[in-house]
Amino acid sequence: MSDSLVIIPTYNEKENIEKIIRKVFSLADPFDILIVDDGSPDGTAAIVKSLQEEFPDMLYIEERKGKLGLGTAYIHGFKWALAKDYEYIFEMDADFSHNPNDLLRLRAACQNGADMVIGSRYIKGVNVVNWPMNRVLMSYFASAYVRLITRIKIRDATAGFVCYQRRVLETIPLDKIRFVGYAFQIEMKFTAIQYGFKVVEIPIIFTDRTAGTSKMSTRIFREAFLGVIQMKLNSLFRNYKS
What we know:
By secondary structure, the chain is of the alpha/beta class. It has eight helices and nine strands. The chain has helices at 17-25, 44-52, 70-82, 102-111, 133-150, 166-171, 183-194, 218-235, and strands at residues 4-10, 32-37, 59-63, 88-91, 116-120, 128-129, 162-165, 199-203, 206-207.
C-alpha cells in the first residue's frame, strides 16, 4: 500500500478514466487511486471496476447515487483516506488538465515542509493552455477577488490540483465545509490557512480537457462569488484551533 492516495471525482469520464489511471500507475513512485463516481450514466464506474482486476490493492472506487457535487465527492474521499493509513492525499481531475507527472512535485513539496501544496496556474504568469480567453479571465480574476475579500495571498484560489498532509484533513472539521462546487476549493485553502497550516503554491501548466465535457456552470460561479463574502464574515466569529 502506498502512503499517497490520489482522489479523482468522476461524472461521465469514460473517455479519460482508463488513460488517467494507467498514467498515474506508470509513475516512478507508487500512488494509490480512489475514484469517487457520482452515478455516471456513461459507464465510467464499470471501466474502473474492470481495471481493479489488473490493479488490486491500488485502485479503489466509491460509487454514489446522483450528481452530488465536487465538494461532497472530495469530502467523501477525504474521510475514506483518513480511515486508511495514507499520509499524502491528493485532489486531481480525471481529464488530464492536471499533468499526473506533477504529482511527484506536489508530494516532494509536502515532504519538504509544506502542509498543503497547490498546483498553481498563476504563480508565474498565466500557465493555461487551450482555454478560451473569457474562461482564463474569469478564473484569474476570481482568485484576485478571493484575495481581496479574504486577505489570503494564494494566487490560484480555485485550483483543484492539491496535495494535503494527513494532519491538515484530520484538523479541518470536514462536516463544516459548506460549499459543493468550485467554491469548495477556495474554502479548503482559506480554512487551512486559518488553522495555521503552511500552504505553498508551485507552478504547473494547466491544459484544458480534450475529451469529455466541462462541469462548470453559472450556478457554480455564483456560489463562489457570493459565498466568499459569507465565508469571510463567518470566519470573524469562528475559533480556529490547530
